[in-house]
Every structure is written in C-alpha cells, then in structure tokens.
Amino acid sequence: MEQEPVTDGARTRHHRHPIPLRLLFAGLGTLFVLLGVLGVFLPVLPTTPFLLLAAACYARSSRRIYHWLLHHPHFGPLIREWREHRSMPYRAKRKALLLIALSFGVSIVFFMPGWRAKLAMAVFGTLLAAWIARIPSRDTPPRP
Q: What's the pLDDT score for residue 13?
C-alpha cells in the first residue's frame, strides 16, 4: 500500500487493486454518491455517511473521481471536515435535525397507519436525531 498526499493537506492510502475490484469499488462509490445526492432532498436518507462511503470507495478505485469529490463545492467540505476532525458543521447538523423533526412529524401525523407504526417511526426518528446530535461540531456558536 502506498500513501500519497492529497492537495488539501490530508493523507490517504491508495491501493493497487486488480481491475475487477477497482470496478466494484467505482460502482459502489457511484451508488453511494447517488444515495448521498438523494439524501439532500430526502431528509430520512442521510447524506454525509453515503458521501464518506463514496470517498472511501473512490480512494480505492479512481484518484481522479476521489479528487473531484474532495474538492466538490458542496460535498467536499463535509468529507474533509469528517476526515480531518471527525466532526460535522454546526449549520449542517442543525438543518439535519430540523428536517428530521419535520419529515418524521409529518409522516407520523399524516401517513403512518396505526399506533404501532407511528411509535416505531417516532423511535427511529428519535434515535437518528440523537445520533446526529452526538456528532461534535467544531464551529458551535458560544452559548449566551
């Protein structure tokens, strides 16, 4: 395994895999990017984890696409923030929590049949929100 510097100052391992394995990683990376893009519009689908998986797959299959993803104006900052600091921007976290509350609330009130399904949806939404809330943010505004 060789290590090469990436232009943003971080280091990543690029593996020399056989072509079928590189194609598999490239296909998975593409799938994860598509799911991440869908997650921008569907609050139940998380964006950041899929983009992180896509970056990991492309690091093993295509340096060009990996570089593009790291320097994409919308996706790159999220990936770099996680890679460098294991954190999530405060605005992204706040937006995610708000959209989870809205989408799960509307789904529970208007679309879920029966109290068991509503309860399951509420529990899942609460667990998802708690998981996102626990991710640190380096840019959290100071409390008054």
A: 55
> Average per-residue pLDDT in the chain?
84
The Cα 74–Cα 82 span in angstroms is 14
Helix axes 63-70, 19-41, angle to 10 degrees: 20
pLDDT in tens, 61-105: 999 999 999 999 988 998 998 889 989 888 888 888 888 898 899
The answer to whether 14 and 59 are in contact (CB under 8 A) is yes
Please tell me the predicted confidence (pLDDT) of residue 6. Answer: 43
Ramachandran angles phi, psi of 5, nearest 5°: -70, 145
Which phi-psi region, left, alpha or beta, contains residue 72 (left: φ > 0; alpha: ψ -120 to 50)? beta
Nearest to 26 by CA among 59, 75, 71: 59
What backbone phi and psi angles, to 5 degrees, belong to 3? -115, 135
What's the CA gap between 85 and 135, in Å, rounded? 11
Phi/psi of residue 14, nearest 5 degrees: -105, 125
Query: Cα separation of 134 and 129, whole Å?
Result: 9
CA neighbor of 26 nearest in space, from 72, 57, 3, 48: 57
